[in-house]
């Protein structure tokens, strides 16, 4: 048993010793790439797009961009959500058909919050 362990240890250490003797470094892992998904991957699982130039946007600009983003999201077609934005908060009102839609709305608003507090007044019709 000891011989098997020693043989395994020698086999594992040989590439490292060889690399050090040649003055090289052990091979590095390949660079990280984003995973890709098939075309039928549900859009609801994709994170919302980040807002453009948030630092230069006024509260009304942010409110308009949130409303546009929510209205363009096909997973929220049957939800009725309104966002009111001021310097301190983002107030969400309306109705979501499911908890999944509710989470999607909160996920969509998150990139716009900055220092604002999110006030969630959304009514969820179908409780899980």
What is the topology?
Blueprint: H1 2-21, H2 59-72, E1 80-85, E2 89-98, H3 99-109, E3 117-126
Parallel strand pairs: 2-3
Antiparallel strand pairs: 1-2
How does this structure look, described?
It is a single chain. This protein is an alpha+beta fold and 128 residues long. The protein has a domain at 58-126: Alpha-Beta Plaits (2-Layer Sandwich). Helices cover 35% and strands 20% of the residues. The protein is built from three helices and three strands; from the N terminus they run ααββαβ. Strands 1-2-3 form a three-stranded mixed beta sheet. β2, α3 (99-109) and β3 (117-126) form a beta-alpha-beta unit. The longest helix is centred in the first third of the chain and has 20 residues, at 2-21. The radius of gyration is 26 Å and the shape is elongated. The termini are far apart. The mean pLDDT is 80.
Derived from helix and strand composition plus strand pairing, the structural class reads alpha+beta
From the N-terminal CA to the C-terminal CA, the straight-line distance is 56 Å
The total count of helices amounts to 3
DSSP, total strands = 3
| Strand order in the sheet with the most strands | 1-2-3
For this structure, what is the CATH homologous superfamily of the domain at 58-126? Cation efflux protein, cytoplasmic domain
CATH topology of the domain at 58-126: Alpha-Beta Plaits
CATH class placement of the domain at 58-126: Alpha Beta
Strand content: 15-25%
Write down the overall geometry. elongated
The CATH architecture of the domain at 58-126 can be named as 2-Layer Sandwich
Stretches where pLDDT is under 50 for at least 5 consecutive residues are none
- Run of helices and strands: HHEEHE
Helix content: 25-40%
């Amino acid at each position: 048993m000891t011989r098997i362990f020693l043989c395994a240890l020698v086999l594992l250490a040989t590439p490292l010793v060889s690399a050090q003797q040649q003055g090289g470094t052990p091979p590095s892992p390949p660079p990280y790439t984003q995973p890709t998904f098939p075309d039928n991957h549900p859009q609801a699982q994709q994170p919302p797009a980040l807002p453009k130039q948030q630092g230069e946007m006024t509260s009304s600009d942010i409110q308009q961009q949130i409303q546009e983003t929510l209205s363009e999201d096909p997973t929220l077609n049957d939800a009725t959500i309104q966002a009111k934005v001021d310097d301190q908060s983002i107030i969400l009102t309306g109705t979501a058909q499911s908890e999944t839609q509710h989470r999607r709305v909160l996920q969509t608003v998150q990139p716009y919050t900055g220092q604002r507090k999110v006030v969630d007044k959304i009514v969820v019709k179908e409780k899980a």
